[in-house]
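Check this:
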Amino acid sequence: MTTMSTNIFSPIKNDLLMLDVNLKKMVGARNPILYAAAEHLFTAGGKRIRPAIVLLIAISTTKTSNIEPEHRRLAEITEIIHTASLVHDDIIDECQIRRGINTVHNTFNTKVAILAGDFLFAQSSWYLANLNNLEVVKTISKVITDFAEGEVRQGITKFKTNISLNDYIEKSFYKTASLMAASCKSASILSHTNKNLQRDFYLYGKHLGLAFQIIDDILDIIGSKESLGKPAGSDLKNGNLTAPLIFALEESPELYYFINREFQNKEDINQAIIIIKQTNGIQKAKDLAQEHIQASLQALKNKNYCFANNTLKLISNYIINRLN
């Protein structure tokens, strides 16, 4: 975690440490290879933003301001589902590095990675069912369907220069925002809140997730390998046309040349990044992310003040500040 995110999450620092311990217990596969593959991912860490948000909503919505065991389990399930999606993402996108370490399929092999991802999805489903809350099961299980929808949409639009901003936002919802929205709503459901509050937390998670994805896509253009934990320009190389590029195309038609030949020459990616940086594409993408941040904050506008709610607002600001 960055220093900034560590400071934001300091009130739940011990809860997140407990989560890390429990994650490794929960993937207790009998097969040593499968266990090693799953543990490999959790050892790499990550920002843990998704489970942190679940825990903070738990504090915000329970009458005693305590995190109940069901909320802790939901936070763990959320991180397992997220991690499973990354395993499959890396295979599809042929990524060699994730979070600064070799990806699962690169460390083991593709078959093991696919099985590890499937195993994590299966484990999450098992623990989800054992929450004994049908509404939460319905809400979270929809996310796994959304992941598949997002991957299919991304696959059929690779290097397609006619992708619209709406197509991009829809794909980003399926791949990123769906899990955040569903986990926020589910945390609220477990606290037995009313439907209006559940809807507000869903909207908070949805817009936060969209902003998060847009910022990720900007960082793919302007970030370094060290800061990203993977090579810059990975999305471009894989033909995933993201917000900065979609906006840049409006100003620099020369980018079509590189996309149409699928960045096949060695310097194509670097040339495309230089052109994108010379346009307003990055700023327009940042403005779009800011709109979603404002929408996430609007969803929390009428919530009673407590440190957890304040931290949820700080998370919204932290996501935009990842660019600084």
